[in-house]
Amino acid sequence: MSTTPALHSPAPETAPVPSRSPWRSLRHRGMRWWSAANFVSNAGTWMQLTVQNLLVLHITGSAAATGLSMSVQAAPALFMSLLGGTAVDRWPRRLTAAVSQALLGAVAFTMAVLVALDRLDMTSLMVLAAVTGVIATVDGPACALLGNDLVPVEDVPSAIGIGALVHSAGRLVGTALAGVTVGFLGTSAAYAANGLSFLFVAAVIPFLRPAPGAVPQAPRPTRRHPASDAAADLTVRQGLLFFARRPRLLALAAITGISSVFGRNYGLTLAVLVTGPLAGGAGSFGTVSTVLAAGGILGAVLGARLRRPSVRLVGTLAAAGALLQVVAGLSPSLAVLLVLVLPMAVVESVSDTAGTAVLQTDPPAHLRGRVLGVWNSIGTVWSLGGPPALGLLMELSGARGALVTGGLITAGAIAAALTLHTRRTPSPVPLPTKDGDLPARADLGTAA
């Protein structure tokens, strides 16, 4: 009597383990091209910024004028970021980014021609700086969101971390090339090189394709339905209301704001600490700055490993960085300070990456441009008001007192907010199992 072989059901396929590699976003072809284009653009931008500061000093002989030119370029972000973010939500993102990059290139070429003809004065320089700032209110959120559109949601932290690395590498290369370019080719060549870098980015953008699983940009309303709900959503007011009614974003803004005002400005506080109480010189502060830069790069790599960052993680890291700042303020020697500076920079960089990922993924796709616009306006307030407030604190309590006081204020405020949030968060209500209930019946929780 023959027997038939038993039928074996195939073993269930196990789901692939999600990658936590910081480089995982680069497995997507579009992201590789975008990163290469951003590196070229960042190098050109920092080349121009370095040369421009030297050029203003040459024209005016005034450090104050140099600071004024930088403020003029940053000022439009305070007043026009909301309009720029709205434009990013209304228009096709790739087209918006390509056009803004081309316009920035045109401004750079204009400055190159004026410098070559020796026709660049402070008036024209300020006007072109202001124009650059206006274009940047659209270009900034468009390029930031375009990079995220190329990868799946779980790879967005990696894309942001790679972006931070590209920015740091571009800054180093661009600053180094500025002196070489001016020495061999002249000042106008640096502006022309920056113009070419913008055109390179504009040429790459049309060929970028989102990876499978990437979140598509929200569809825009057509002219046939001007009164549609989508059209009503594409307003500045909707962006403001969403931000104001979103506790996660408000908490993120509060954490970042208090950290920006009472900490993080290490270029100011640590410079005074090193050259004052620690009796170091410019070389010593240069060493501290180098360690800070290395820590920022390491932190960007670690931050790129994140998959689902949260506001709680951002707050915890910010509080940890603030406590390290307190200890740094009490450093008895430069050697001890150098040991503390590296983890300070790492924690700050990871926190920034996590916060940026939350900011750029939490809002619905059709509101992300305006949310970034609100954020840029708030960030400009912090960048303008933070250093003077910190300088006043140093005048009153010295460098050590400012570091210690600022760190304690930051850590205390964040700890109190996290504790209050935990107490207010309702816990799930377990339900007793009765006869006849399903074995895997889920507990019901209170609505959030």
Structural class: mainly alpha
Sum up the overall morphology in one term: globular
Total helical elements: 14
DSSP, total strands: 0
How would the blueprint of this fold be written?
Blueprint (H helix, E strand, L loop, with lengths): L28 H32 L2 H28 L2 H24 L5 H28 L6 H30 L1 H18 L24 H5 L2 H9 L2 H16 L3 H10 L6 H22 L7 H19 L4 H28 L6 H57 L24
Helix pairs in contact: 1-2, 1-5, 1-6, 2-4, 2-14, 3-4, 3-6, 4-14, 5-6, 5-11, 5-13, 8-14, 9-12, 9-14, 10-11, 10-14, 11-13, 12-13, 12-14
Describe the structure concisely for a colleague.
The protein is mainly alpha-helical.
Describe the structure.
- By secondary structure, this protein is mostly helical.
- The chain has 14 helices and no strands.
- Helix 4 (122-149) crosses helix 14 (368-424) and helix 9 crosses helix 14 (368-424).
- The longest helix is centred in the C-terminal third of the chain and has 57 residues, at 368-424.
- Mean pLDDT is 83; it is low at 1-9, 11-15, 221-232 and 431-448.
Keywords:
448 residues; mainly alpha; 14 helices; 73% helix; 0% strand; disordered N terminus; disordered C terminus
